[in-house]
Design goal:
By secondary structure, the protein is an alpha+beta fold. It is built from seven helices and 15 strands. The strands form three sheets. It has a six-stranded antiparallel β-barrel. Helix 3 packs antiparallel against helix 4.
């Protein structure tokens, strides 16, 4: 073994070119593989924005009063969770409460007046119905009495005519004939009196009916007046309730109180003055602004992206996966606004909060490395703009 090793060294010294022959095929294979990768592989081209930030889907909502007033209650604290309709602040409503109390007493009095008026109307209507029955009965009695007097008159006239026919026979005396004629006159007078009584009864019934109708009309008018005043009182009560409600500042969205003005009970608040900010409880989104030459026509809906938060190195904490949801059609302040949703779980160690800044990268296309190389050469020669970042 000791002698064979020196012979091997001498053989290599005799033919030094042979030791590189086996490297040629290997180099060719590597070159072919690299050329194939450069031509056929696909890598992502990223458009990057340093102006990205985390936001809530519903955004922020200001807290402000609709009216001027003195603060009597602060019902919320900084960072507390609120729901839609929760009372956050209350302004002084003492003057309105006194007016509401007066309106309530007025409404109560009108309600009682309406109840009494309705009872009076019902009594008058019932009395009118009873009077109508009595009047009908009275008219019937008068009619029957008149018919009876007509029958009596007809009988008296028949008796008088019969006696007059027998006057010359000596059977009927003068006194009998006189009595018969007197009976006719009495029956005629009785019929006239019955007819006059009928006229009197009808007149009295009409007068009584007119009086009842007048009293019923007046009662109904008073009832309608009280009802109209009650409606007005209820409208005033609703107006006062709305005025009281306007002095209560309520939450307009579900969320968390992110900002709160340093106010205390007794301070005077102006209408429209900012009292705080509610951060919506919606899901987290990422907003980013891209240069129009990079974003227009390149950043597309559903394109994948990533967020690297400032202060959290991506090598240590990783990045947040994103997907493009909305793209603005026009530039604002020289940038195209893009909104991205968070895809999948957030890496451990990261906690999304509203307003966190970071860099957003969005894949705009996938091209071969050879294409990127040509673009880089073209940019170096000034033939085209420098390409977007290669992922």
């Amino acid at each position: 073994m000791v002698q064979s090793f020196p012979r091997t060294l001498r053989s290599l010294e005799v033919d030094p070119g042979r030791r590189w022959i086996w490297l040629l095929p290997m180099g060719g294979l590597v070159l072919c593989a690299w050329i194939a990768w450069a031509l056929f592989a696909r890598v992502g081209v990223l458009a990057t924005s340093e102006a990205g930030r985390v936001v809530r889907a519903g955004g922020t909502h200001g807290i402000e009063s609709a009216l001027d007033g003195r603060l009597v209650r602060v019902a919320v604290e900084l960072d507390s969770k609120v729901k839609v309709g929760d009372v956050l602040f209350e302004l002084d409503t003492a003057d309105l409460e006194l007016e509401r109390l007066a309106q309530a007493e007025r409404a109560l009095g009108l309600t009682r007046e309406i109840e009494n008026g309705a009872a009076a109307v019902a009594q008058l209507e019932l009395a009118g119905a009873d009077s109508a029955d009595a009047d009908s009965a009275g008219r019937t009695a008068v009619k029957l009495a008149g018919e009876a007097r007509e029958v009596e008159l007809e009988l008296a006239r028949d008796d008088a005519a019969r006696l007059e026919r027998l006057e010359g026979s000596g059977i009927v005396t003068e006194s009998d004939l006189a009595r018969a004629r007197a009976a006719v006159r009495l029956a005629d007078n009785a019929l006239a009196a019955a007819r006059a009584e009928g006229v009197r009864v009808e007149a009295e019934q009409r007068l009584a009916g007119s009086d009842r109708r007048a009293r019923l009309f007046e009662s109904r008018r008073e009832l309608e007046r009280a009802q109209a005043e009650l409606v007005a009182a209820i409208s005033d009560r609703v107006r006062l309730d709305n005025a009281v409600e306007q002095r209560r500042v309520r939450a307009t969205v579900d969320g968390r109180v992110a900002e709160l003005a340093p106010l205390s009970v007794g301070e005077y608040v102006r209408a429209g003055e900012s009292l705080g900010v509610i951060l919506s409880a919606g899901k987290y989104l990422v907003e980013a602004g891209f240069a129009p030459r990079i974003a227009l026509g390149r950043v597309r809906l559903d394109a994948r992206g990533s967020l690297s938060l400032d202060g959290f190195p991506a090598a240590q904490y990783g990045t947040v996966s994103l997907r493009v949801e909305r793209i603005a059609g026009e530039a604002r302040e020289g940038r195209i606004h893009v909104e991205l949703s968070v895809e999948g779980p957030v890496p451990a160690g990261l906690s999304l909060e509203h307003g966190l800044p970071g860099a957003v990268s969005v894949e705009v296309e996938r091209v071969s490395p050879a294409t990127l190389l040509l673009r880089t050469v073209g940019a170096a020669l000034g033939l085209q703009p420098r390409p977007a970042e290669l992922r």
